[in-house]
Amino acid sequence: MGNKPLIIIRVFFLVLCIAGSLLLTYSIPDWKEHRLQAVIVGLLIGVLVILVDIAIKGFSLRGLTALTFGIAMGTIVSFLLSVSPLFSGGDPETLYLARLGLFVICCYLGAVIALRGKDDFNFVIPYVRFVRQETDVPMIIVDASTLIDGRIAKICETQFVGGGIIIPRFILSELQRIADSPDPVRRARGRRGLETLNALRKVKTLDLKIHDSEVSNRQEMDAKLVFIAQSMKAKLLTMDYSLAQMAQFQGVVWLNLNNLARAVRPELALGETVEVDIVKPGKEENQGVGYLEDGSMVVIADGRNLIGKRVTAEVVSVLPSAGGKMVFAKPTNRAPAPAPAE
Q1: CB 314 within 8 A of CB 327
Q2: Is residue 175 part of a domain?
Q3: How many Å apart are CA 328 and CA 287, to the nearest integer?
Q4: Rounded Cα gap, residues 29 and 168, in angstroms
Q5: Distance (Å, whole) CA 299 – CA 290
Q6: In this predicted model, what pLDDT tens digit does every residue of 134-192 receive, in sequence order?
Q7: Residue-wise over 46-66: b if at least 16 C-beta within 10 A, else e?
Q8: In a domain, 119, yes or no
Q9: Both 196 and 164 in a single domain?
């Protein structure tokens, strides 16, 4: 149904081409005997134009802008060269052919160079939005590692993230490539990234944009992400440490969900109680180990015999560690010891 209006327009265009060719046979007396040939020529011209239309189906407005700019620059360069002293004298026909060839070459080179750098045209007006009082709209570039992590969707659902989320098209291609990997682990990671993307699309309060940008090889992906963020004055959300360091070196503000998770961890004070499942024995004798929801390790004194149970424990000390915090606690609902045998 979505292509029906387009089909109607194409059929109408073919009819116009045929009708135009017939009108030419009536207006030119010498063509009256070649009406059938004129109809065929008009039909072929219409079909050729429609085929060109189908061939450039994926040609974006940004690509058309780049192409127009390249042709315009090529025309200007060829004109400046043609009026230079290099073409001041000589055979008129030779000069005409030389100018024509120069025009074609300059336009071709201008168009090719402009299309190869078409991504730069998006940075002239990178993210057009009309905001009252000319307020800057915060933008966040998201990479593949963040989508694979998956937590960004839940964070956006809580409306803590405002402004625009931008995902370059080559990130979508990378996720699809990972999802099609023969390795089951990589395939699962890629599919989780695609599921996260679909979850982001369903968040009504989120302004999600796909940045029409490509890379020639995977090695350029990190550099292109930093370049896009730098050019659009956006922040870069990534879980990749090397990419974050590259962004920091280029002066791009980068975000990491692990840093956010550590920042929102609740502060535990001495004497507070926590509920935790003891999952394994500790290093010291009679110790049990459990984990809070934020990943903090809780070491329970005299908890080895409570492995597999959920206990309420009182915090006795909190120590910082490389992975966050290590909490030492003692159970408050310890089961009574069995009575001695008679």
Answers
A1: no
A2: yes
A3: 10
A4: 58
A5: 7
A6: 445 678 888 888 899 888 888 888 877 766 888 888 888 888 889 998 988 888 999 99
A7: beeebeeeeeeeeeeebbeeb
A8: yes
A9: yes
Among 124, 146, 175, residue at a domain's last position:
124
Residues 107/74, Cβ–Cβ less than 8 Å: yes
Contact, 336 vs 302, CB < 8 A? no
**In this structure, what token pair is assigned to residue 297?**
């390790």
Rg for the chain (alpha carbons), in Å?
33
pLDDT confidence tier of residue 58, bands split at 50, 70 and 90: low
Measure the CA–CA gap between 206 and 153, rounded to whole angstroms: 10
- Has residue 339 been placed in a domain? no
Q: Is 325 helix (H, G, I), strand (E, B) or coil?
A: strand
What residue type is assigned to position 265 of the chain? R
pTM above 0.70, yes or no: no
Q: What is the spatial distance between Cα 292 and Cα 280, in angstroms, rounded to a whole number?
A: 14
Domain boundary among 124, 148, 169: 124
Cβ neighbors of 199 (< 8 A, separation 6 or more) are: 153
Tell me the per-residue pLDDT of 248-286, one tens digit each, with 9 for 90 and over: 888 888 888 877 777 777 677 788 888 888 888 888 888
DSSP 91-154: -HHHHHHHHHHHHHHHHHHHHHHHHHTGGGGGGTS-S----GGGPPPPEEEE-HHHHHH-HHHH
pLDDT digits (tens, 9 = 90+) for 64-115: 777 788 888 888 988 888 888 877 777 777 777 788 888 888 888 888 887 7
Q: How many distinct structural domains can be found in the chain? A: 4
User: Do 164 and 201 belong to one domain?
Assistant: yes
Distance CA 72, CA 78 (A): 10
What phi and psi values does residue 255 have, to the nearest 5 degrees? -120, 150
Query: What local confidence, expressed as pLDDT, does residue 112 receive?
Result: 80
- On whether residue 160 sits in a domain, the answer given is yes
Domain limits at 283?
273-331
- Is the distance from CB of 310 to CB of 324 less than 8 angstroms? no
pLDDT reported for residue 191: 92
Q: Which residue has the tokens 């490389």?
A: 322
